[in-house]
Amino acid sequence: MIKMIKGGVTAAKGFCAASTAAGIKYQNRQDMAMLYSEVPCAVAGTFTTNLVKAAPVKWDQKIVYESKKAQAVVINAGIANACTGEEGMRYCRQTAEKVGELLPVPEDQVLVASTGVIGMQLPMERICAGIEAMVPALSGETESGHAAAQAIMTTDTHEKEIAVEVMLGGVPVTIGGMCKGSGMIHPNMCTMLSFVTTDAAIAQPLLLEALQADVCDTYNMISVDGDTSTNDTCLLLANGMAENPVISEKNEDYDRFCEALRTVNEYLAKQMAGDGEGATALFEVKVIGAETKEQAKIISKSVITSNLTKAAIYGHDANWGRILCAMGYSGAQFDPEKVDLFFESAAGKMQIIKDGVALDYSEEEATKILSEPEVTAIADIKMGTEEATAWGCDLTYDYVKINADYRS
Questions:
Q1: φ, ψ for residue 149 (rounded to 5)?
Q2: Residues in Cβ contact with 373 at an 8 Å cutoff, skipping those fewer than 6 apart
Q3: What is the pLDDT, as a whole number, of residue 183?
Q4: Residues 256 and 360 sit within 8 Å (Cβ to Cβ)
Q5: Which of 20, 48, 155, 191 is an active site residue?
Q6: Please, which of 67, 191, 197, 321 could form a disulfide with 108 given CB 3.0 to 4.6 Å?
Q7: What pLDDT is recorded for position 227?
Q8: What is the C-alpha separation between 25 and 23, in angstroms, rounded?
């Protein structure tokens, strides 16, 4: 059984967090955060599929795939450290070296993450001063994790964090997480940063396999605007301080760990989709009755990335033709004349089309259903038993306003 508990990245044993206002780009708000584990952690990570990768992504990939251990993470908001050449990589190293001066952590166990404007160089004096301010403030208190989740935001409207508890080998194990992401979000790792901490004892290869498999059904199933960022990073750190029997093979404990990890990542993914820049609604698309899961994924993602559909959701308009159209150009094969489509929200559920043809439904009732802050479209393609869910948001005037002056 998975139990929701209070907190975020500091909920698991041995993890501390701190944040500070370094003045990197934003004024009068915290814009740097730090995570630290009392002991070295097994580390896993997944990263952007964009060919243009930010320096922190390259730095973290080396640690995940070569060092395979980490003990600290330094995050800044405001400047992405992307498209910054050798200087950007040198700044990652300087960040790690600064942490190593103040904490007993080797350079190759310090992860870095950045989010914000592409092409600007980091002000390293402020970064280093921020680290100096955060190290003595590191704390395992819930409030410290909460403040860290706030500090990593850019255009996000609220912090995003979660913590759960699960029994592994008769021992309570905690998984906590925080993320940021509101724009430049698209399937295949989206500008999203996600940090998940756990006190579970688990072998690094299995930790990496669990994360990579889970990302396919969580973060890779969300989209805000169709743009895949240069900085997408999801990091998972496991310090083993729960002292559960070490998970070294795929057994019942591994399955339970994966289930709890799914709970955390799905929650964070939905939080990002629902907090899309300018968004007023979380738009969920569930494809059922598919022949294969991949078919269901392709179709559901096609619908949530359709700008016409997203605009219709903003207008609370049951324009089902746009959904069927997006399904049709997805590249997946299905029979349009067998599709049933439903809209659902807290206001009720309504079938809109049956076997590809519109029913005599009430537009007024449909508008009521589509006016809720969370709206689901369910498409049954009647080909099998597989299904998949994707998450997006509506497209509003404010999205254009936010991105028209993002650098100013």
A1: -65, -30
A2: 274, 280, 281, 282
A3: 63
A4: no
A5: 191
A6: 67
A7: 61
A8: 6
Is residue 117 classed exposed, middle or buried when 0-12, 13-18 and 19+ CB atoms within 10 A define those classes? middle
DSSP 121: P
The secondary structure of residue 346, as a DSSP letter, is T
Structure tokens at 343: 């809209």
Could you confirm whether 115 is annotated as catalytic?
Answer: no
Residue 88: what pLDDT?
Answer: 96
Q: How far apart (Å, rounded) are the C-alpha atoms in residues 370 and 363?
A: 10
Beta strand pairing status for 374-380 and 357-358?
Answer: unpaired
Q: What is the pLDDT of residue 405?
A: 72
- How far apart CA 180 and CA 176 sit, in angstroms, is 14
* Per-10-residue mean pLDDT, the chain, length 408: 97 98 92 98 93 94 96 96 95 98 97 92 97 98 98 90 98 97 63 92 98 94 74 94 98 98 96 84 97 97 94 95 97 98 98 97 97 97 98 87 70
pTM (two decimals): 0.91
The binding site for substrate comprises 154, 180, 191, 277, 403, 408
Distance CA 165, CA 6 (A): 10
| Domains defined along the chain, listed by start | 3-274 (3.60.70.12), 282-404 (3.10.20.340)
* CA neighbor of 375 nearest in space, from 340, 348, 339: 348
CA–CA separation, 288 vs 300, rounded Å?
10
Give the burial class of 212: count Cβ atoms within 10 A of its Cβ; 0-12 exposed, 13-18 middle, 19 or more buried. middle
Residue 397: its pLDDT value, please? 86
Give Cβ neighbours of residue 101 (< 8 Å, ≥ 6 apart). Answer: none
* Closest alpha carbon to 220 in 152, 291, 305: 305
Closest alpha carbon to 35 in 156, 165, 178: 178
Q: Which own/partner pairs from 319-327 qualify as long-range (CB within 8 Å, at least 24 positions apart)?
A: 320/352, 320/353, 320/358, 323/285, 323/377, 323/379, 324/353, 324/356, 326/302, 327/299, 327/302, 327/303, 327/379
Comparing CA positions, the residue from 44, 109, 6 lying closest to residue 247 is: 44
Longest dimension (CA), the chain: 70
